[in-house]
Amino acid sequence: MASLSLARPRLLDRYILREMVAPTSLGVLVFTFILMIDQIPRLLAILVARSADLYTIVRVFLNLLPSILAVTIPMAFLLGVLLAFGRLASDSEIVALRAVGVSPLRLLGPVFAFSLAAGFLTFYINAVALPAANQAHRELVYSLIVSKARTVVKPRTFTDELLPNRLMLYVSDIAAESGLWKNVFIHDNQDPREPKVMLAREGHLVIDKEKRFVRVELADAMLYKFAVAAPTEYNETRFDTHRFDLPFDEFFPKLPLSKGDREMTLPELTAEMKKRQDAGRPPKEWARFEVEWHKKFAIPSACLVFGFLGLGLSLGSKKEARSAAFALSIGVIFVYYILIRLGEQAGDTGLMSPFLSMWGANLVLGTAAVALLILNHREAAFDPLDPRHYLAWLPRVRLKPDRPGAEGAPAAARPVLVVRLPRVVLRFPSLLDRYIARSWVSFFGLILLAFTSIFFRPSSWTSSTTSSRTV
Predict the structure, then answer these.
(1) Residue 396 lies in a domain
(2) Residue 272 to residues 162, 256, 258, 282, Cα–Cα distance (Å)
(3) 3 state SS for 271-287
(4) Does one domain contain both 277 and 297?
(5) Is 197 among the domain residues?
(6) In this structure, which long-range contacts are made by residues 401-407, counting pairs with CB atoms below 8 Å and at least 24 apart in sequence?
(7) Main-chain dihedrals φ then ψ at residue 269, nearest 5 degrees
(8) pTM reported for the whole predicted model
(9) Are residues 369 and 272 in the same domain?
(10) Does 419 reside within a domain?
């Protein structure tokens, strides 16, 4: 009997874990695919324009995955908890468990274990995989652009791919050892009012990502300037060496090439904070590093908060609990990420302490989760999806009846006018048609709102393809 009593909790835990694993895995795939769609067109535009091969394209998208998984794993975990317990509630299994004496707190075991696993995975991605992948992504795109820029110039071929429609380049030969251009012709139309023609014995392209410049250097060069207003006149200048810069922001995509706070590991963030604090810098110059340090712990901890909150929201007995799970997950995720995004901005600007700015959302939703679990434990009939349970806490207002007539006589009855209208019977839509239409409209609006809110997520927190704050 003792072994049987010990086996029952393990059987229940495995049963609940199986219910959560399947929707969580599906949620990771769906959410990752949705967020990946947002990045595919822009990345392919950069990669195809630079003639990237299939291997490079695969590497770019693999480096992008950690920035997406850092967001989608907590989202998918919340959806998995809500769908699992929503299914149990809609099939009255929650009622059956309560009937045999299983309290809501007993169900915390498998949820807590699964949330710890999801939290540790999210922490590894945020603290280890994400900084390395973000930096590798930047370096890969940078090296691809540099390689394309240096190989696009071919001997005895006119090319304008360095600056389309503004810079035409022709070289007669390229030295195999040094890569120097021989006998260079350049037509520079960056200033349409004063086009230029340059002739040089030698030349080469210089790209420096640290100093952020792209430069063409010419040796033994002649420069001819033409004024559009006076086409018969031109200026001729001879140079031993001549340099002119190309617009860096147009030459490269808007991609930060230096290592920012989102590409730093925990030790690097700590060292950067200490260095700036020791140098006497104001808090605004090092607060963002402390915010990023706390974020790497706060977002993985959201898995615990989402697990408890999902359990507290799913312990009702409504048959619609399964269909409401998707709406609840999107609503909770949207509220959480809005709170943490506002906190991040307040922490970066010094309006709020870095700790509170990153952990405030967890504290707010964690408090709500604990309150729901306590109410479910105290009241067996408590349904978190039923608004009447919350309206019962509001004070009631009673209206006094009408005053009686003179000497205690009842008030005189008022005349009532009854208007009879002909009854109109419509064969379409019928009751069944309206029921199907309501279901379709509700699910369509729910999915449309959900996917729209996912696209409006604060993607700049982790994404390696968006502009980040540089050091």
Answers:
(1) no
(2) 37, 19, 15, 14
(3) HHHHHHHHCCCCHHHHH
(4) yes
(5) yes
(6) none
(7) -65, -45
(8) 0.66
(9) yes
(10) no
